[in-house]
Design goal:
The chain is mainly alpha-helical. The chain has two domains: 52 residues; 42 residues. The chain is built from four helices and no strands. The termini are far apart.
């Protein structure tokens, strides 16, 4: 029998928080094994989820896109700062 995965295992695997895994379980996105006293997931179930094309409403896709947006916002702010500095220095040269 394959190793059963914990919520922590999945969180590390998908680079999300355990709370995200808990939310997806409560929403029915993740289905834990039945008949055991702990919350565990089969590797087959997880592989099926990972192999399926993620739809627009998929919580996994939403989370990934939110992370990407946040990184792009940070990069955008850094670039704005660089451009501001370049404009300030350029205006000093032009007015001199």
């Amino acid at each position: 029998m394959d190793k059963l995965l914990t919520q922590k295992d999945l969180a590390e695997r998908w680079q999300v928080t355990v709370r995200a895994i808990e939310n997806w379980r409560k929403e029915g996105v993740l289905t834990p094994c039945k008949g055991i006293p702990a919350i565990r997931f089969t590797q087959q179930h997880i592989a099926e989820l990972e192999g399926v094309k993620l739809e627009k409403a998929s919580p996994l896709r939403v989370r990934r896109l939110e992370n990407e947006i946040e990184k792009l916002k940070e990069e955008n702010e850094k670039l704005k700062g660089i451009l501001t500095n370049v404009m300030v220095e350029t205006s000093k040269v032009i007015t001199s």
